[in-house]
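Regression check, NDP case 246:
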Amino acid sequence: MSPLAVVSGGTRGIGLTLSRRLVKLGYRVVAPYRSDAQAAASAAAELGESFHPLQLDVADADAVRAAAGTVLTRHGTPTVLVNNAGINIDRPFLELSALDWRRVLDTNLSGAFFLSQAFAPAMLAADRDATIVNIGATTGIRPRRNGANYCASKAGLLHLTKCLAVELAPRIRVNCLIPGMTETDELVTRFRLDDPAARAAVVAEIPRGRIGTTEEIADALEFLIGPASGYLTGQKLIVDGGQFMW
Ligand code: NDP
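Current build output:
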């Protein structure tokens, strides 16, 4: 049977391109999504029988545990888990409510913890090595204004990556793939990139002279789950056109 990948948020944006790439590489893909059933249906129509969207709030620990049990029974053990689901609720720090804080941390950080913990026992017991890739953000390293919740969640995700890389070794490699500015509907809306002046201002900060594509993030994922990165774990791979050179 073909290998299985679980890609949270694999129905839209970066996650959809990651799902497409994994299907192209011969994986079956289970893609938890939160609420956009239309996007999930359209991804399923495009990707066919190898793709299984799954309505699941990754921030809900009990729901994740139950869904993981169903996935393991119905589809088998994943060899790849991509913790990609993420949200922003941006506000100045002094205006951030407890709910704004919790929703972002619960999705971006706890969601990755819940999914990893739900699948790791089966992945560790399987007869082949597995990989977890957490989708971080440059703001998890370099803070930006009005995103204390998002920045903290992505900083936590980077450190969770390292902790899991230690505890799940040697059978599961765990790395953090950090996209820079990457062309998705969400990014276009958030940075008003439909406005040529706003786009030019963003691009001026990027040495490569353009915003990245979701395909370029899929290229990095392909490297991180493949044999060419077999000795790489607990690391961050930053794909940002040179915007930040850490
Ligand atoms: P999108 O908003 O386009 O897609 C987010 C996906 O995550 C959707 O499929 C969404 O499902 C799903 N999702 C959100 N919350 C939950 C939840 N609680 N449970 C299950 N699924 C959920 O985001 P992007 O593609 O732009 O971003 C993907 C990842 O990349 C995020 O982690 C983001 O932080 C990170 N990133 C993106 C950058 C960019 O430039 N685009 C830059 C740096 C990092 P639904 O559609 O149902 O809501």
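Comparison notes: Residues 98-125 form the longest helix (28 residues). Residues 8-9, 11-15, 32-36, 39, 56-59, 84-87, 107, 111, 135, 137, 179, 181-182, 184, 186-187 surround NDP (CB under 6 Å). No diff flagged against the previous build.
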